[in-house]
Structure formats: structure tokens, C-alpha cells
Design goal:
Elements: E1 3-7, H1 13-20, E2 29-33, H2 35-44, E3 49-53, H3 54-59, E4 65-74, E5 81-85, E6 96-100, H4 104-117, E7 123-127, E8 140-144, H5 145-152, E9 159-162, H6 163-171, E10 175-182, H7 189-208, H8 210-221, H9 225-232, E11 235-236, H10 241-257
Amino acid sequence: MIKLGHILYSNCFPPHAGIVLHKVGFPFKLVEGVPTQLNRMLSEGTIDVSPSSSIEYAVNKGRYILFPDLSITSNNKVVSILLESKSPIEELANKVVALTTASATSVVLLRILLEIHYGVNPKYILYEQGAEDPSQQSDAMLTIGDLAIQRAATSKYPHHYDLGELWHKFTGLPFVFALWQINYQKKIHNDLSRLYDIIMESRSYGLNHLQELAETCSERFNIPSTVLLKYWNLFSYRFGEEEKKGLLMYYSYAAELGAIEPEKELRFWTRD
């Protein structure tokens, strides 16, 4: 039986809403986790398909194929990828920046913005968000997901930076946070067409019921319904030409940092 990963953060909910809420038939198994957990399970083969960090695809070059027309992409602001800082971002050279272990994609994005765009080279430390508070040991900290949305409203840091917005100002392109990646094996070949159709049906359900979902799922994510609806409307859950350009630009800069090998081609699943 195919195992499909599901990111626990609210940004993944609209395309999987039909599945999670049993609005579409789903004869497979859904496995929940944060992005880094799902990346590991996908790599290990304990799940077969997942919306996984876009950096995961490039780090494991040639290992995965992609479901077409599916992504989690911010067109500009993203709200849930937050850098809080005690000083302006352009003054973070040699300062300590705490990086969450929950998302490899966002960590590389921040490094691109700091080291390439702003030309500063901080010292990095890692922390487990939700379990550790690095504020005493760092000058700035990166938080992602629903916790970032919640922190933004209560943060005591004087400087806040939305990484999706900074990326768009830097490149003029959207930023692709996640792609539906397949750790392909012959034994799942016959089920992939069915799974793809189910995900597309689930996405259609979710995007057509955003207002209702925001009202009914506010408590699930501990985010006010008005904030949740506005947040979901910041995203594209498709993968067209602009999303592709943004992703390949990200890979180009990530390669410049030495985080990945150059990646110029994307491999997509087909029904044949």
C-alpha cells in the first residue's frame, strides 16, 4: 500500500483537505510529520510520496521524480518563514543566527539571502523550535510554519523579516517550498495514477472551500480563521512556468553556496 506523507503545518492543508477530512476516497495510508521528518522517511523509503522540501529533491539528485502541477509556493509574502533579529539584517555579519532544524529548504533560503543578497556571513547555530529558545544565545532566529505565524504577533525582536517577501524582492519570482516527490519503485507503479488523481481531487476540494476550512480548522492550527484564510491565499498549490523559474533560481543560488550540486532539469512522473 502506498504511504503518502502529509506536512503537519497549515500551509499543506488545502491540497490535502479532501483526504484528511475524508471528502475523497483514499485507499492508501497518510503519514504526518514536519518537513525534515518527511524528508528522512522519503529518503529511507518508509513513505513513498510526500510534499517534501524542495531542497530535498536537489540534495538527492536523480533519486526522486515529481508529481506534475503540485507545489507549495509563495507568490510574495509567506508569513510563516520568519527571521526575527535584534539588529537590521544587513548588519548580521559575524553575529549568531539560530536556524530551526524543522526545514532544510528555509535554512538554505536564509543563507542565500544573507550571504549572497546582503553579503553578510553570520555564525550559525541549530535549535529545535517549540522545544528550545535560542534567544539568549543568538542575535537572530529563524522560525517556520504555524509557530512563526503565532510568534510574529508576540515577538519582542525589533526587526522582522518575511523570507518569501525578501526572496521576491531579490528575484522577482515566487518561492517553491515543497514539491510532491516520489521515491519510485516498480511495486507502486500501478497505484501512482490513482493517488495522483486523488490528490488533484483533494486539492480541488480544498481550494474551493477555503473560507469554510478556515472557520472549521482554526482551532486545529491555533490560528484565527481570518488570519488562516488570508495566509492560504498567499500560496499557489500549482507548479507552472513561474514556479519552475523560481525553483531553478533557488537551486542555482544553493549550488553557489555549495549546498547542492547544480540542478537544471526536473524529472516528472507520467502515466505511461
